[in-house]
Amino acid sequence: MAGVQDQLEIKFRLTDGSDIGPKSFPAATSVVTLKESILAQWPKEKENGPRTVKDVKLISAGRILENNRTVGECRSPLCDVPGGVTTMHVVVQPPSLEKEKKLMSEPQQNKCVCVIL
Length: 117
Known about the structure:
Blueprint: H1 2-5, E1 7-13, E2 19-26, H2 31-41, E3 56-60, E4 63-64, E5 85-92, H3 95-105
Keywords: Cell membrane, Lipoprotein, Membrane, Methylation, Palmitate, Prenylation
Function: May serve as docking site to facilitate the association of other proteins to the plasma membrane.
Protein name: Membrane-anchored ubiquitin-fold protein
């Protein structure tokens, strides 16, 4: 019976409302492994798909899941029903947006010149 509880049935909801899964994962599975699974199963016909795990954010129970955590550590006692399917939301953040954010966050040089007469 403990083996059944160590497995979670997870489906991944994409931003357009379609799903990948559900698929069963051991509780010891890392979030990075979930992201790799999403990359492998990403529908080929969808535009702007993720290229790497860094492009993918997973959200469960309102929290962004950290790559170094396991599925078991990310469980929400309020949302996860034993024997039920857990839905995780997938957000794709293209690398170009990250570069733009870095440029915006860099301090701007002041180009004003004060002249005292």
